[in-house]
Structure formats: C-alpha cells, structure tokens
Here is the input.
Amino acid sequence: MAVGTVVLGAVLTGCTGSGLSDGSGLSDGSGRPGGGATATDGHGTSPLADPDGTKPGLAAISSEKDESAARDLIAGVSTKGRGPKTGYSRDAFGYAWMDTADGVPLARNGCDTRNDLLKRDGQNLRFRSGSDCVVMSMTLYDPYTGKDIDWTKQKASAVQIDHMVPLSYAWQLGAARWDKDKREQLANDPLNLLPVDGPSNSSKGDSGPASWLPPSKAIRCSYAVRFAQVALKYELPVTAPDKRTMLAQCGG
Here is the structure.
C-alpha cells in the first residue's frame, strides 16, 4: 500500500553496507546529491524546507517565524497511548536497508538504503573501487552532537542510521496493524532516516521525544519537526507526553 502524500501547509508543503572492510581499493568521490535550501552554516537542511527527506542533513530551526511554523505542524499530530510491544520484530518491517520498498524516494536505484543515506549526508565521500554506491569513508556532520565524524567502513558502528520514529515505537502506536508494504516504506523512507553518531543513537533506543532528545539543544526543534513530519505522513499518532515535549522544543 503506497503512503499518501501529506501537504503540510504553504511553508511545508538500498549494495548492503555490512560494516566490514572488504579490502578493496578506494575511488574518489565527493559532494552530496540533492541540493536545495540549506542552513547558512552549511550543516544541513531545515526540515521545513525538506518535506520528503531527500536533502542533506538536518539543520537547526532558530527564527521565530520558523518556530511558529514548526508548532503549527506539530499541533496537527494526533495522540494515543503506547500499546504493548507484543509480536514486534525488525523483520516485520522488511530486511534491513532493502532497495525495493516501493513508494518512497530512492527506492530501486541500485543502492541500498544505508548507502543512499551516507551519500545524501556525507562529505568527502570515497567509494569502493568500481562502485558509485558503497561508501568506504566520509566526513559526517552529526546534528545530534554538533560534531564532525571522520568515518570509515572498517569502524562502521561509529555512524548509525537513526529511525527518527523508531520502528518498535511505530509498532506500538499502530504499525502492528499495517500491511507489510507500509511498514517497509517507514523503515526505508529517507524522511525517517538520519546518519548520526553511533553512541547517541544507541542511547535513544526506541524512545519517543519525552524520553530522549538529541544532546545538542540547538537541533531539538528540528528533531521534533522531523518526528512530526513522519507521523503525519504515515498517519501515526504519538503519545501525549511526546507531543507536549515536541511542542516545547519549538517554544510551545
């Protein structure tokens, strides 16, 4: 089942990386696909300017006008209690980083989701020899900590791909009743995915915003907006404490 497009107002509107070195030589590559409106500090794109998640990174929201737009967006998210985790498994959302989750950007482009995201957000990219897909090294600006990470595939866990809305969280809020296609879309949708500092992502687990927020306070409103964008696109509620926390990050 394809996920419908959600219009968020006038201001808003797949070569698997295993984490192990294969010993191959490297070919040079650089730059980021996408483009569009980015933050003036060069550290990513405001979520308000990136409603489909295809532009690089996640930039801070700081102006009063954008904070107001952020609160309006978050206000549209519905709430309900978090149900039991009974029956949840990662496999219910398809195998990790599949390139065949039809209905989301970047599907069936010949490159798995993890590498798509590394290419989207990384700088100074170097690819496996003969490949324009498998990223072997890069520099990543991590919005969660505000730090640059010099990453290599030999130490893959230093950068992890965060599901902004965790899959088990989604399961407990209604995804248990979705069909498999919709769950696969959520798991591989660039809107819901962000390469970040590995230890920070591990500390998040399956928490909602009321239980975990990025260490960098400057990015918390943007984090709340992206969480809301995913929830709205997939018609997924959040808990009432999570919604209150999300609004508070944007001055609400």
Remarks:
- The chain has a mean pLDDT of 87.
- Helices lie at 64-75, 113-121, 167-172, 180-188, 198-204, 220-233, 240-249.
